[in-house]
Amino acid sequence: MSEKLIDETLKRMQDTLALHTQHRLETKERLGFLDQQYARISGRVAPLCERLERVEKHLDLADV
Q1: How far, in Å, CA of 37 to CA of 11, rounded?
Q2: Is the model's pLDDT at 17 over the cut of 60?
Q3: Which residues contact 55 (CB under 8 A, 6 or more apart)?
């Protein structure tokens, strides 16, 4: 194999690695955003679940 071919192959490998790294960082960023959204929604839903449980108990609808 000539040096030129080796250099070209290494360059393509570096480019591919850089692209994969960029995609991984974008995915990590998106997952962080989704995690924040989930936490926000969970924080809003939890009190509603507790309130529903109290209503069910008050109406004798709750499972024992």
Answers
A1: 39
A2: yes
A3: 61
